[in-house]
Design brief:
By secondary structure, the chain is mainly alpha-helical. The chain is built from three helices and two strands. The chain has helices at 7-31, 36-65, 68-84, and strands spanning 86-87, 94-95. α1 (7-31) packs antiparallel against α2. Keywords: Membrane, Transmembrane, Transmembrane helix.
Length: 115
Amino acid sequence: MVHAHPLSSLALLLLILGALFAFGFGFVLFHVPGEPAVRRAILPFYCAVPVILMGAALLLNVGLAKGWPGLLLMAGIAAVVLATSRVCGKCGIAVQPRSLITPKFCAHCGHALSE
């Protein structure tokens, strides 16, 4: 007999997988030296996979709980983070702000970031 798992368990599993992927692959992407062109080529995939996994988990949880205001709050936070993050054109490392102020220089190489 096959047991059907509730969707909330599936959502939690997707959330955990997304977080593990983000931390593991992010560590390699941001802390292991390499060619900047390779970093720029990998960056869209690094950004897409956790967003898809965590987004699916969030939609499952919010859809089941019918907590659409929570979904709007999370979407707003994601939009702010996306709007204030930059990728350095010289070294290829993603630079995220420490506050809501967009960084002007790369913390890794000091290159001025475009606005």
